[in-house]
Amino acid sequence: MWQVVRLRRALHVFQLEGYKRRRFLQWARADRARALFVRAHPQKKPLVMTGRAWRLLITSAVLCLAGVLVLPGIMHIAWGFPLDLGSWAVMSALLFLGVPEVLVVADSVMSPIQRAINERYLRRAATTLQELSPTVVAITGSFGKTSTKFAIETLAGEPGTILATPSSYNTPLGVCRAINERLGPAHRVFVVEMGAYGEGEIAELMGFVRPSIGVLTAVGPAHLERFGSMDAIRRAKYEVVRDLPSGGTAVMSVDDQIVRALADDTTHVAVVRYGLDADGRPDVTARDVTFGSDGTTMTILDQRDGTQVRLSTPLLGSHAVGHVLAGFAVARAVGRTKEEIARAASRLRPVEHRLQLMDGAPGITIIDDAYNSNPDGAAAALAVLEAMPADRRIVVTPGMIELGELQYDENRRFGELAGGVADTLIVVARVNRDAIVEGAGGKRAKVITVDSLDEAQVHLRDFLRPGSVVLFENDLPDQYES
């Protein structure tokens, strides 16, 4: 029973790692004491006992039971004491130390069954998509794709006529689940977010949903550790444009230098360039942009036909302008008028944990930007914090992860920026502590280091007062927080 408890704790980490065996084993081998799972840790994102999770838990428990019974049983029958007791002790020790390896073996054993289940779901989703035949919009990027996806969902259709894949359902099975559970005859447009950790993953999704419009928001070092190089990231993200059919439309952010170069080289489909930087020759841009604590107002100009529209949105920050421009471009591509788009813009809402403005205790403002930070997004969040009227500015952050060889330098630069904007900088966990503290050294901010978000909140209670603005920038997954 103790082994089952530990297996369940290990399963939580395995699930957080997306059931990627190699990454899970790397995590376990980085700290074998942590990977014994003898202590429970607070969970911000608890284990979800899906069918796959139950199958893995049961199979791994059966493997453990067999391990401590079968070999010692054979030894007992064949040779008796002390070989039976010795083999039992050895197997018990191995299984105690090797909980991550047991889960990986169980996952390998269950692979044929899981593959058959996945294929059945995929066939059902493919049939549904073919029968309903909505206009499919694919969107990807190193950052900004989720916020842009929901901007498109709001601007490109009336409620009930357009469906976007929820939350971060950006894998084949996530997209498949969205189709099977949510897509209906009333949906004229289906917006699909596409995530990737390697080349070919977006291409697989493109072949499955067959979009006619592809949106590329940015190419940056997010998940560089997994991709291996910036060239690999660039090639992988460009698959959303490369695999569009003849007659398709690519909507590309020319504020991003790499995307701009890709747009310059794209000739096989129509390209709609969007952004604020005039050097990128955007087709869809904005001017007279004003920011306030209640949102952003702008005039959007479609330079292809001279269309102009003034609109306001509750979204915050310069990045939000890009989300709206992409939404406008896609909305125009599917036939929406500028008046319809302007009315819809007032319904835009910040995506949860992405520059989301919230009220805390009386007189205290919270900027929640805790989802999956990246260098550009973190800088934009600090700019929003700096622009907010406040008596005291506080940043709570663990820094950024999965940036590979750039991780230390990017977190040090982030520390420099945060140290210059904030009055207090609370660095959570140890993973980027040295880099952020080094960057913030000599800046105006008082730096406090803690091991967990719970500890950070204890410190916040001690010195928050009316007039304070707190930015939560990124939040580590449970398996990274010490």
Write the layout of secondary structure elements.
Blueprint: H1 2-16, H2 21-30, H3 51-78, H4 83-97, H5 99-132, E1 135-140, H6 145-155, E2 162-164, H7 172-182, E3 189-193, H8 201-209, E4 213-216, H9 224-227, H10 230-242, E5 249-253, H11 257-265, E6 270-274, E7 284-292, E8 295-302, E9 307-313, H12 318-333, H13 338-345, E10 356-359, E11 365-369, H14 375-387, E12 392-397, H15 407-421, E13 424-428, H16 433-440, E14 446-450, H17 453-463, E15 468-473
Parallel strand pairs: 1-3, 1-4, 2-3, 4-5, 5-6, 11-15, 12-13, 12-15, 13-14
Antiparallel strand pairs: 7-8, 8-9, 10-11
Helix pairs in contact: 1-3, 1-5, 2-5, 3-4, 3-5, 5-7, 6-12, 8-10, 14-15, 15-16
Low-pLDDT regions: none
| Biggest β-sheet description | 6 strands, parallel
Write down the overall geometry.
globular
Radius of gyration: 25 Å
Look at the helices and sheets and give the structural class.
alpha/beta
CATH 4th-level superfamily of the largest domain: Mur-like, catalytic domain
The CATH topology of the largest domain corresponds to UDP-N-acetylmuramoyl-L-alanine:D-glutamate ligase
**Sheet with most strands: strand arrangement:** 2-3-1-4-5-6
Please report the total strand number as a whole number: 15
Give the distance, in angstroms, between the N- and C-terminal Cα atoms: 26 Å
For the record, the count of structural domains works out to 3
CATH architecture of the largest domain: 3-Layer(aba) Sandwich
In which range does the helix fraction lie?
A: 40-55%
With helices defined by DSSP (H or I, 4 residues minimum), what is the helix count? 17
Estimate the mean pLDDT confidence: 91
